[in-house]
UniProtKB/TrEMBL annotation:
Recorded GO CC terms: nuclear pore
Localization annotation: Nucleus envelope
Gene Ontology biological process terms, A to Z: poly(A)+ mRNA export from nucleus; protein import into nucleus
Record keywords: Nucleus
Protein name: Nuclear pore complex protein NUP93A
Signal sequence range: none
Gene Ontology MF terms in the entry: structural constituent of nuclear pore
InterPro entries listed in its UniProt record: Nucleoporin_int_Nup93/Nic96
Parts forming coiled coils: none
Presence of the UniProt keyword Nucleus in the record: yes
Family affiliation: Belongs to the nucleoporin interacting component (NIC) family.
Length: 127
């Protein structure tokens, strides 16, 4: 018996919402929008991606306190991390003359060593 009453409640709700839709006239300011489920899902994912923040302020404060307890200056650490430039020191621009993997790795190792030595020499000249 309760299920018949639930169904009648749902039916009443459907009829009242249909009447509301019929009564609501589209205004020039706000035209009616019709979206399917896929469009709603895509739009909600897009909105969620905009709203996500990488780190909450409370987490940042807690992290700073933890680092301070260990004697680490968080601001100095952040500056140091920003100053690092992540790049490869050697790029294999020319085709390798090696015919096997072992020869290629040996050649790559030699070029990396030469590149590291050149970078160290440049750093010494700057100092």
């Amino acid at each position: 018996m309760a299920s018949e009453q639930d169904m009648s409640n749902w039916t009443d709700l459907l009829h009242s919402s249909t009447k509301l839709l019929e009564q609501a006239a589209p205004s020039p300011q706000f035209p009616p929008l019709q979206r399917n489920l896929d469009q709603l899902e895509a739009l909600s994912k897009k909105l969620k991606a905009k709203a996500i923040r990488p780190e909450a302020p409370s987490q940042s404060i807690a992290a700073t306190r933890l680092l301070a307890r260990e004697g680490i200056n968080a601001e100095h650490l952040a500056r140091d991390l920003k100053s690092f430039e992540l790049k490869t020191t050697f790029e294999d621009v020319f085709p390798a003359e090696a015919t096997s993997v072992e020869e290629y790795l040996q050649q790559f190792h030699e070029m990396a060593m030469v590149s590291a030595i050149q970078e160290a020499q440049k750093d010494n000249v700057r100092s």
